Fold this protein.
Amino acid sequence: MVLRFPAYRIEEPITYNLIRDYNIIVNILNADISHGKEGSLLVEMKGEKQDMDMALTYLEKHEIQINPVRKTILFNESPCVHCGSCTAVCFTGALEMSRKERSLIFKPEKCIACELCIKACPLGLFELNFGIH
Amino acid sequence: MCPQGPIIRLSMKDYQEINEKIRSGKAVVLTAEEVSAMAGTKSPRQVAEEVDVVTTGTFGPMCSSGMFLNVGHTDPPIRMEDITLNGVPVHAGVAAVDMYIGATANHPSNPSYGGAHIIEELIAGKDIELVAKGKGTDCYPLHEVRTHINKNTVNEMIMFNPRNAYQNYPVAVNTTGRTNYTYMGTLLPRLGNATFSTSGELSPLLNDPELRTIGVGTRIFLGGTTGYVSWNGTQFKTDVPRTDEMVPKVNAATIAVIGDARNMSPDFIRAAYFEKYGVSIFIGIGIPIPVLDEEMAARLMIRNEQIITRIVDYGSVNKPVLGEVNYRDLFSGEIEIEGKKVRTASMSSLLKAREIAQILKDQISAGSFTLTEPVQAFPSNTSLHSLQIR
């Protein structure tokens, strides 16, 4: 999830409090925090349900917005040479070769963001995106 | 081994006759796929009578590729003995300012960037940083040069690829319990997938399995411009098992090719990186094949289901062979190996191969590309040495 801090909350040790007071395992994936500006923190949070509920209440009380995120795969289509290497590792049918034209078809709605295509594409045309919903 | 097919050769056309037809705009030119599609309705004799030239194409990763570059002399001059381009080491040791960019050369600290990227960027017209060092001699006193080059500042950029367009190639699978990262792509554990690399019935060397028309001096499409077959490729071998149509069931012949990279296009020369293997390069090649006689027509009419290759376990030591499969089944998306259904995927682009065969067809039909008779045939009875450690 992405935690958004108003500028006046930047000084508070939010992550520290989540770990110490609520026993939450916090894994920071990305952080964009600077003094005087609104900040954001991309984190994975794990804990007992009761602890988690209390932690979320704590965040809400401190006016920290909680946005769930969804991993998506971005495909840079125009340089694609349609070799099909990515289809070797895609098991959900999100990446398939059209039978006749042998061109690559990407169906994002079938993608579960397993990330295997990122390494399989020899041209490096796939990237992970943390979409905020 | 005597490469003798079931059909008797009756000479019907020669190169001169075909070229005269091309020049007068009367040549009948088809792609290899179009000719293969005629197999059900026409005999080889009819095809030989009606068709003059068949165009082929392939676009796949071909590691044994590179480019000679002459960057010109500085004043005072330097004997470039240690050279990098954008940080990628290139081969010195060919006089003072000649160098060879090997496609698979890697940047020392960025494994996904290498010689292939330099080649693609030079072709695209981009600036590249050149750093060269020399010990300094009486005739080459300069010790170091640091500057930028591009396709307009250099004297020559000549693509010379020692081994391209493999005549057939194995299917890669992995029976082990861990993912294998190879030049045949990501091979998932326990036969999780199978990868292959060919344009099948459109592939140049599969359409002339006995290499009657492809030899030293054959004019070809290379990377978006005209190139030539300069020699047989490295690891060239002919002593291989073949089908009734004389098509090798394993990797066999290869070609060395040459062409002016300044006229090439990134549409047909593309850098690639295979995870945990390294850098490689996609090369686009098209070869026109004259329909000299009935036997040549029969060879050109070959279909994917008649082309066989071996399934090789890339995960295990000594790469054991697990079976044989044809290209119709490989292109279908699923094959069966040891009783298990396995998803297949190609490493080379059939879409681009078709584009190349079509471009060549259009050029020949328009009279702007004529055929060349090989000035020397390839070796006919060769085998490979492996390296003995002694």
In short: The longest helix of chain A spans residues 49-61. The helical segments of chain A are 14-22, 49-61, 116-120. The mean pLDDT of chain A is 90. Chain A touches chain B through 21 residues (CB under 8 Å).
